[in-house]
Amino acid sequence: MSFVPHNHFSSSDEVVHSTPDPHQDEAAALDSSRIPVAEATLETKRLLLRRLAQDDAAALHRCTGDREVMRYWHPGPDADVAATEGRIAEIDEHWRRYGFGDFGVIERETDALVGFAGLHHIDDMAEVNAGYALMAGCWRRGLGTELCRLLLAHGFADLGLPEIVAVIDPRNDASLALAERCGLGFRRQLTWQGRPRVLYAMTRAESRGAT
Hints:
The chain is of the alpha+beta class. The chain has a domain at 24-160: Gcn5-related N-acetyltransferase (GNAT) (Aminopeptidase), CATH 3.40.630.30. Helices cover 30% and strands 24% of the residues. It has helices spanning 24-30, 57-64, 81-98, 143-158, 173-181, 204-208, and strands spanning 41-43, 47-50, 102-107, 112-120, 129-134, 163-168, 185-192, 195-203. Strands 1-2-3-4-5 form a 5-stranded antiparallel sheet, with helices on both faces. α2 (57-64) crosses α3. The protein is globular.
């Protein structure tokens, strides 16, 4: 499942630990006017989010190379591990440019890399988008909700973002329901990369009243 084809507010899933980002000084030098650099790790009881590295490519490809997992992502699954290496390089460049981005998602119980998730800009849109992709074995366990609430909390509390959006394929019923469950509201229909999409959003003010 995914929010975005790219491709929190108060929560009972507590963020229990974070560590400084070793790229903070370098990223800040690129653009001192942008928002604060994100923490290098985020955690809940079941998940650890950490920066991706190139040696994660083979493991991540089990997620991003899966046709069903990437069904609603543009332009679709990574063709091979080299394509996933390119994806990780693009994610790293986003971190360097903006000071935040996608993380690798580690399932704490197994210590396995099971996908990626984060806040990022997407082509032709100014808003910051929340998105994630998890291996099919992680579906229907509440991990998507756990991730999305964590990302919203991170974006509003840590990064001070005024708004977070989710750009969703209208056929993706699971992600539409997840957005609503996490408190995002429908804003508009749009065309993105020549494809129909719907935009859900939450402002920081709205997050304070979410339950």
